[in-house]
Amino acid sequence: MEAKQTGGHDAHLPGPIGLWSLLLSSIFPMLGLFALGPALPRVAAAFSADPNAEVLAQLIGGASGISFALSSPIIGGMIGRWGYKPVYVVSLLAFAAFGTVPALLHSLPLILLTRVLLGVCVAGAFTAGLAGIGTLDATQRPRMYGRNAMLSSVGAMAIFPAVGALSTIGWRLPFLIHLIALAVVPMAMTLPSKPVATAQAHAHAHAPTGHGLGVAPVLLVLAAFMGLAMYVGPMFAPFYLKTIGVTDPRLAALPLSGMSLAALIVTGNFGRLYARFGARTLFAATLVLTGLGLLAAGLAPSLPAFAAAMFVVSGGLAMFAPNVSAHIAATSTNFARGIGLAMSAMFAVQVAFPFLARAISQAVGPASVFHIFGGCALVAGIGTVALARRTIRPAARTA
């Protein structure tokens, strides 16, 4: 994998090692926000004398996600002011420190505090990595955003089993996975201190959007909706599967494995898809595939049918994150802030999903969770297609 370098701007673009460090930025949300999940029961058990141990352990699992969502826009502004390299390097060092120190602590409230701070570090590492990819040549960015997303799925396949294995030895050991960030620091140090100027990096960009936000408001609404849709599979699927007779956890995990495979296929080919169809078509495809898949999943009478439907859902969802990053990088003069806001919108709303899913399930049944989210996605996707045709036709007439 090589960084594309042209003319006299070689020193302002990442070399191969620096480019790898940017691609690896996608593993930090998985490490900092989700990977500790299998170890949380052991953490609660270690502090069983504390009457609030179970609640605090659950908060430890979710606190970093909340601080990540709230701090991402601020991090985007910092990157716009100081550049992505210093924010990335400092975030990596802080990630290793705050992520690992709970292994030395003897207080759940203190561990909870470190997790809140860790979420800010995740925002710094992830947003800086996406912003760094945004400085690449316009023909290279989509492919790199796709590979960035793909590495997150690959990393999850290794990290989650590792955390489970470490937690069987002791509750403190899983916190050591955060030391992975230290291996990325030397790679990140090779990044250019002064990245290529925005005007040069966006020589082929469209008109700036977002009115100072760095992202169009409609994309923030879409990001929030997709953030909720992303939770339907991993968070609610096991509850629905019980209603169709699937109670074995090993069988209930099969659709999630299929979703991971679909995500790998799509993100691995995202660069080709973006080059051929463009951002707007891929946004429409994301919504249509997600909508059709969720509707089919809510009607699935068996595990194979449900797994096939969720495979389609994951194929649609996997396109969204790299597509929104590539689109913002191509259309915004303040793409670091725009990406930060988009990531914030996507993750901030996820805390509301359990409450929404519970309300829908109790009111009209578990299958309706899939039907409502799927119907909304499909309607939005059809609307996106119609809008695209409406804007293309006048252009064709004037031409």
Descriptors:
single chain; 399 residues; mainly alpha; 18 helices; disordered C terminus
Outline the structure in words.
By secondary structure, this protein is mainly alpha-helical. Helices cover 75% and strands 0% of the residues. The chain is globular, with a radius of gyration of 21 Å. It starts with 15 loop residues before the first helix and ends with a helix. The model is unreliable at 2-9, 197-208 and 392-399 (pLDDT under 50).
Write the layout of secondary structure elements.
Elements: H1 16-23, H2 27-34, H3 40-46, H4 53-82, H5 84-100, H6 108-134, H7 141-169, H8 180-188, H9 198-201, H10 217-243, H11 249-252, H12 254-268, H13 270-277, H14 279-299, H15 303-331, H16 335-348, H17 353-364, H18 367-398
Helix pairs in contact: 1-6, 1-8, 2-4, 2-6, 2-7, 3-4, 4-5, 4-6, 4-16, 5-6, 5-8, 6-16, 7-12, 7-13, 7-15, 10-15, 10-16, 10-18, 12-15, 14-15, 14-18, 15-16
